[in-house]
Amino acid sequence: MERNLTQIALFAALIAALGLIPKFSLASGVPISAQSLGIMLCGTVLGAKRGTLAVLLFLGLVALGLPLLAGGRGGLGVFSGVTVGYLAGFVAGAFVTGLLAQMWRGRGGWILPSVAALVGGVVVMNILGIIGMAWKLDKTLAEATVLALPFVPGDLLKCVLAGLITQALQKARPGLLQA
Length: 179
Fold this sequence. Notes:
Family: Belongs to the BioY family.
CATH architecture: Orthogonal Bundle
Radius of gyration: 15 Å
Number of strands: 2
Pfam families: BioY (PF02632)
Main location: membrane
Helix content: 55-70%
Membrane topology: Multi-pass membrane protein
CATH topology: Arp2/3 complex 21 kDa subunit ARPC3
Largest sheet: 2 strands, antiparallel
Subcellular location: Cell membrane
Number of helices: 6
């Protein structure tokens, strides 16, 4: 129990730390950061349940006003802004990534964790993010998708990194990864 709580807190801190990379925003207003890598790692390393709890803890701290999102954003206002879909996508993305990573644990080297990160951390997160952007910016889904496309190459790189990091952790600390 204590180990689980510690891991959940550490991964919430990892998500926050990955948001410290200097903010760079595209035309959509959504900042580019490495935080989505943290979401992917929550799933690939901690699994669906603990990974989702780490993301919920992180978002709870953001809701309390801590400036933990990329660019130093925080507070309840971020949950009504253009990134609301991505914030919901953080939760769903970690869960889906975790489910797939648990099913494939110990197989496929770095490739299967990368695929899990791709499905949860890119596809699921972007579907919700695009829906949220379309809603908040009063755009069609197609227009919002165009705004999200510049993020995809970086997201693909993050998927590979998540797979490589997960494989390295599997070798170095096999007990760390959720079965």
